[in-house]
User: Fold this.
Amino acid sequence: MEKTVEISGTIFKIKRFSVHDGPGIRTSVFLKGCPLNCIWCHSPEGISSEISIWHDQSLCIACGKCVKSCTEKAIELITQPEPESQQQISINRKLCTLNGDCVKICPTGAIQFTGTKTSVSSVIDEIIKDILYYKMSGGGVTLTGGEPLYQPDFSAGILEACRKRKIHTAIETSLFCEREALSRISDFVDMFIIDMKISDPLKHIHYTGKSNESIRENFRYIAKSGKQIIVRIPMIKGITNSEENINAIQKFVRKTNSRIPIEHIPYNPLAENNYKRLNVPFLLK
Assistant:
């Protein structure tokens, strides 16, 4: 008998008891990888599909255990200049081979992987822990990211497994994807939570790196499907929160389907800390 190969993918977080990603109490599964590169992204660890290391300086006690454990000499203790004269960890990510010794030995959890490879069944094992809460609250599971449609087969596997267990499913997406990816998952999705960021095509390219043409086409496609849809506009000062941009997005949505609700989502300023952990520049400044 031919052995079935289980679908696997990469995630960077599973958040239980979430109440902001759809109705009721939910489990939000954050998938790695996103084709957009929004300068305000609040989860930069989810942009790349590759797993890397990040370091939270606020948790680090500079004990030096990670330095001793690193066979690649990718970590060192450096002394900050006066007046602090404090020691801090510095990671050379070009030398890092991700063997995980530093993650295992860190006593405070200051060093972590930015994601993990896992299987559909492992994700479902986490999801069903709260199945009673879903039933009591009208909640369920939300795939988010990153961009869940960047891993369409993995997302479809999770959503289909949830559907078989009669768990309500939602997906938070920018809709920047191939039409085949949408077709792959749509039968297993109860609710689409769609981020619409910028109406102007040139500004969309400037701030996200990609055109919004396919996003608009995919939105029209999903709107015709009869699925429940919520549109969310992230409120980024000086970029997306202008009256011109909001009105343009509202006009487009209403013209497509006047019954689709539109929400304005405030930006979380704490996102800057995630850029510091990755040691990458925070461009929104």
Q: What stands out?
A: The chain is about 30% helix and 25% strand. The first helix runs from residue 65 to 69. The chain has a mean pLDDT of 94.
